[in-house]
Amino acid sequence: MRIKDICDFVSRGCTPSYVEYSPYKVMNQATFSKGFLDESNLRYTENANPVARICKGDLLIASTGGGVLGKVYYYDADDTSFYADSHVSILRSSKNSMKYLYYYFFIRYEMINSTMVKGSTNQTELQKNYLLNHDVEIPSLKTQQKVVRFLDEKISIIDQKVALLTAKRELFKAQKQVLINKVTNMGLNGNHFIAKRKVSRLGGYPIEWRLYRIKDIAYLYSGLTGKSGDDFRSEDISKQKPFIPYTNILNNTYINECQFSYVVLEDGENQNLVKRNDLLFLMSSEDYGSIAKTAVVKNDVGELYLNSFCKGVRFYDEKLVYAPFVNYQLSSTKFRDYLRLEARGFTRINIKVDKISSMFVYLPPLEEQKAIVSYLDEKCAKIDTIICNINIQIDKLQSLKKSLINEVISGKRTV
Predict the structure, then answer these.
(1) What value does the mean pLDDT take over residues 295-324?
(2) Most exposed residue of 100, 185, 323, 374, measured as fewest CB within 10 angstroms of its CB?
(3) Please, which pLDDT band fits residue 120 given cuts at 50, 70 and 90?
(4) Residue 231, class by beta-carbon neighbours within 10 Å (0-12 exposed, 13-18 middle, 19+ buried)?
(5) Is 398 exposed, middle or buried (0-12, 13-18, 19+ CB in 10 A)?
């Protein structure tokens, strides 16, 4: 059967006007793309469109966003105050089990993700017609329900183990964050006298340290400009040049030199080169947790460019500023909170260049900056190793979950 014969395409969601708080809560892709309801990414609206209301038993599909497109979520709550935004599709049926369809699409994320078109703003999106005309070999309702009961029982056991490991991982992340917070704001010995004066929302800082605005000690430059989707997809290696992708900044403290992507650049193009000790900012994100995340280019990298959604910060005087120290300081909680408060947006979060250039940092003497970085590099590396091992365990459980669902849905295992 085709999807449109099984269920209805209720809505592609709506684009309501947003307010700070109201009884009407709006889901975007980031709200559920991690596999659970992340309330930190909820938005609120006053003029909710009834068509976009999410009901118990609905299947939600992320319809845009390169990193999450095709992610699915089964809504199983009685709360009727949730609405979908324009980047989320709602599928609904009273005749078939949408939970069965959720399991079906869960193991076909790559298939959905590859079903994209380029929109007017170069944003990829799920093709509604392809989705509705997709063929599904679906059993009787009785068998669907039996499959769902079996999978719910088995998957809940796996999810519980994942939840425990995730909680353990978060504890180590918190430990790492406390460490960064302490030494980048108080120094290694922690006995600095904290100045009574405050820097906007950043609070006090050691009196021996000096206060600077970023625009007074550095200049900002742009990532790639004027490039089309074809430039990134081209297979003409003779014109391809490496650039730092968004995820390389998002996932690393120092840029990983094994994680470059490639784009076609013509001779004579005026694009900014990335250099050693540049501090790189994410200027656009799908959630507030990632906005203005930074990473440092640690080594000389040759000809290298920067993603379009990013800005580079190049410090004027390396005898005054050690870029890895600023990177660590900006990753501390109060700086991250400050930057998130300066960001704006709902379905796409952005921060303006002037918010970055006009923000303050406070710097100890250069040798102390380097000592702090050396200390944090060593301590954080140990914690990161533990977190990496936990992630491996989680990935194995997630693979087991996917394999189990695939065996049942494909009929390789009978229940």
Answers:
(1) 95
(2) 374
(3) very low
(4) middle
(5) middle
CB 328 within 8 A of CB 372: yes
What's the confidence (pLDDT) of residue 28?
A: 85
Which amino acid makes up residue 156?
Answer: S
User: SS3 letters for 314-329?
Assistant: EECCCCCCCHHHHHHH
pTM of the model: 0.79
| Helix pair angle (323-330, 141-186), 10° resolution | 130
Q: What are the angstrom distances between the C-alpha of 128 and each of 174, 281, 319?
A: 41, 34, 56
Ranges of each domain in the chain: 3-138, 141-176+183-191+365-415
From residue 151, alpha-carbon distances to 100, 108, 136, 283 in Å are 9, 16, 19, 41
Summarize pLDDT for 259-289 with one digit per residue, the tens.
999 999 988 889 999 999 999 999 998 788 8
**Alpha carbon distance 116, 109 (integer Å):** 12
21: burial class by Cβ within 10 Å (0-12, 13-18, 19+)?
exposed
Output the CA torsion 333→338→340→342 (10° steps): -170
Cβ 317 vs Cβ 369: under 8 Å: no
The Cβ of residue 327 has, within 10 Å, a number of other Cβ atoms equal to 21
**What is the token pair recorded at 68?**
């999450």
Amino acid of residue 117: V
Phi, psi of 290 (to 5 degrees): -100, -15
